[in-house]
Amino acid sequence: MSAGGRGHLGPGPDNGRIVRRRGTSGGKVSSASSSSSSDWPARLSSASGGGRWSSVLLLPAVVYVAAVYRLAFLAGERSSSSWPRPSSPSSLLAASASERKNLFDVAARADEGERERGRGRGRGGRRGAVVAKTHGALAIPRGAIASSVNKLLRVDGGGGGGGDAAERYPYPYATAPVSVDHDFSSYVPPGGYRFVEYRDGDAPYLITPAASHLSDESARSRRVHVSNAMRHVWENYRGGLVYGKDEMRPLSGTGSDTWGGMGTTLIDSLDTLWLMGLKDEFWEGRNFIRDRLRFDHVGYVSFFETSIRNLGGLLSAYDLSGDNAFLEKADDLAKRLSRAYDTPFGMPHGYVDLGTGQSNNRADYILAEVGTQQVEYRYLARATGKPEYADMSMRAFDVLRALQPSDGLLFELIKDGDGGGGGGGGGGGGGWLSWLFKGSGNDKPVFANGKVSFGAMGDSAYEYMLKVWIQGGRKEDAYRRMWDKAVTGMHEQLLRKSSLTGLTYISNRIDGRLEHKMDHLVCFLGGSLALSAYTDPLGLDSPRARRSLRTARALAYTCYQMYARTKTGLAPEYVRFEGENDMVVPRDSPYYILRPEAVEAFYYLSSLTGDPIYREWGWEIFQSIEKFCKTKYGYGSPRDVDKPGSVEDRMESFFLAETLKYLYLLFDPDSEIDILNKHVFNTEAHPLTIFKD
Fold this sequence. Notes:
Keywords: Calcium, Disulfide bond, Glycosidase, Hydrolase, Metal-binding. It is a single chain. By secondary structure, the chain is mainly alpha-helical. The chain has a domain at 58-181. The chain contains 22 helices and 22 strands. The protein has a three-stranded antiparallel β-sheet with strand order 5-6-7. The protein has a three-stranded antiparallel β-sheet with strand order 8-9-10. It is globular, with a radius of gyration of 26 Å. The two termini are 19 Å apart.
């Protein structure tokens, strides 16, 4: 849809009701973004409208009275006069933040004490108690009080989908819009072990139209700050001597041609500029690319990185703007890259010289590199009328289809073959494998190691199983079956829960044994699983879709905890789950390189389920980025997420292409992007239009 909104996003899997509708009002920058938050309680009342919502607005008074009398009884020796009271008993919204916090903290402790007396501490102890608290937000405790409130409300409407509880509670984490001069320097990460009601993949709250409206209003004020972050980088990138360089160093302000001198940061950022409304900067970039960018001088480059960053960025810029200058450059680049496909079985070499056309592998083929160019090359084939681009890329993908074992889990390294004539390493191609490689003698591709991972070296190959199917209009069912088979194998063999706090994670498998390690990269899976649930041919109500959606939400919570449990509120490169030491940050992975995968998952889940919690988590992460990563010229990478203060003098182009883009879209209820019906993102967050025929 256009900027007016996306319309409804489908029924919830619990009861078939519409989950939510995106707001259809509001321009690209709402007046809410510049208003003070002091009038927010008044806007809360007006946003709810009349009718049945008027009764909801009387709820705080009921909660207050019930809390006072019930908790006075539980406390015994406390007198009723000792309870903290808001200045206006008619509304908890009129209370100060400290008064609300005191009231609900006392209520939560008393309610938790009653539960523990009744049935013991249970798994997780105090951390396992479901208490609705949040930094700077109105929160109503769950438990007996919230249960009584729920019975009083009788609110109709969707709840975000997928919850299994008989009752849902009103969404308690509504937050006010932020001002345009919001001070990030004073931000203190609120810490982990919160929002535990989301831990197991539940959708615990009713997401009413009023809650959605308020979340959208708050989001619009936040997207201004994400746009400002992009402006901060771009003013320094284009204002110095680094414009057109592959990367800009955020501490020194100097440039580097890390990727061969192809203007990677510029190309990777084009669609982010467009979606943020920075059109002057976008067209300036077009002029540079059209008039000055050349590829014939570039030597060896990574086929994978150049395809997803440079080729994907050019194609997305063309898709959004319709300007042929981008398509012409993409065609030129792809011609040079396509020499990498000149291999025995059509799997692309890892490196190719854009000037001479020579290519080599340096080692074995990597799963993610073989399976992560199809979305780009298929789009280019359509746009240029040159089907050979699609044919080359899909032949490589069909190698993976032929090799996919019965459990769906592909090993991360592949080689051309050893003359043995089999699929190797557990491959299950059978007759299809023999047909695909007929005429090749006994040689067939084989797996070269025994490691399965949804993290580094494997991740995006699984992602593209789903996205190739979506890009083709959900008609090429063989690729959807590849995805479904892999997801089944993941659930049956790799999915685990930590022993201490019950966090869901995806382990690796090495030669049949599990490695209880999860890369930050794996967080992409939360978004892909949610997307697969909402596009499942069996329907969102099917057991398969419900399982995928529950795992998506549980995994997103774990990824959020990877951030929330550190001193900076930023995540390490990977974590381990070791016995009673829940979520350990190893000594060799304490750094954060501005990765996007967690906020990517939050964006998908927010867009599809309508649950505002993902915006709250994303806002915490963005505030930590502003506090601990921002430098004079851009954003640096913290060396240790538990030791604030020191950052590396490097800023990857994916910070602008993915991290800031997903954060902006997370806070942009008016976006032109439609992930269900119109667009598919490549693995570098470049949106491309889905094929219509």
